[in-house]
Amino acid sequence: PYKEYLEHILEYLMSFLYRTEPLQDIEKIFTKLESEFEEQWINGEVPGWENKGTEKESVLQESAVDLDYYSTVEELVELGPEKLKEALTARGLKGGGTVQQRAERLFLLKHTPLEKLDRKHFAKGDDLKKEIALIEMKMKRLCEILDEVIVRTKENAEKKLTLTYEEMEAEREEEEVQADSESDDEDQQIYNPLKLPMGWDGKPIPYWLYKLHGLGQEFKCEICGNHSYWGRRAYERHFKEWRHQHGMRCLGIPNTKNFNEITSIKEATALWERIQAKQGQNKWRPDLEEEYEDKDGNIYNKKTYTDLQRQGLI
């Protein structure tokens, strides 16, 4: 439950950051953070989880089993189930199973370093702790980026808690008046001489953004009924959208990757014919390619053999 709770908070923080600061590269931030986390986790230096390494070392010392003194699994079996379990759990490995299985699992460390051992041998508890620690670290990083917003939100919440009923009503009325004036502004005709596309706020997008995405570049698609797509991104995306798929279905052509970047009906039809012809050449044709042999050792294809047999010649 705690991990799910953290995941929900992290998802909300990421969503908020995407909406309020779209130029922040969250993936890049997380990639760098994950590499730092791995190094800190190994050294037991992750904030809030610093004792992990020292705890493990003390447990290892208490349940120390020096594998250099053991040359076979059978020798380890003699230690008994409890001693083997302590040695395994101290190293973060599964401690269950029979005495033989525990000894075999521990004996793997004689020739294989712990960090290179197959993950299936490790107990799930350590993995869960590591995942929780990573999520917490990601949340802290996002909170650092959103520090000013969080401070303002707390101040606003604290301010509202101190307001009387009359003050809250006065503030609400003020917000309603402000909202009405904003809606009046929206009703006024928007000045847009360059005919720029509208953004999420109902206003023309900035000209630099318009140029950056190449939204002045028109792409027409004959298969879509000569529909226009503005910008390279919208053009590339449309090959998977319903309008293009419907056009391809009407032509009787499957909308596969072979037909990406093809917008002409003539080109699409010609390519489909070539693909069908190629598929026909590679198809097995039993009438011509299946071989039959008569009693004299003569070889015929199926069609010829059947004709000669029907005529009584063989």
TrEMBL record:
Region (Disordered) residue spans: 168-188
GO cellular component, one term: spliceosomal complex
Signal sequence region: none
Keyword terms: Metal-binding, mRNA processing, mRNA splicing, Nucleus, Zinc, Zinc-finger
Molecular function via GO: RNA binding; zinc ion binding
Protein's UniProt keywords contain Electron transport: no
InterPro entries, A to Z: Matrin/U1-C_Znf_C2H2 (IPR000690), RNA_Proc_DNA_Dmg_Regulator (IPR051421), SDE2/SF3A3_SAP (IPR025086), SF3a60/Prp9_C (IPR024598)
Keyword Chloroplast (UniProt): no
Subcellular location field: Nucleus
Domain Matrin-type: start-end pairs: 219-250
GO biological process: mRNA splicing, via spliceosome
Protein name: Matrin-type domain-containing protein
Organism of this sequence: Aegilops tauschii subsp. strangulata
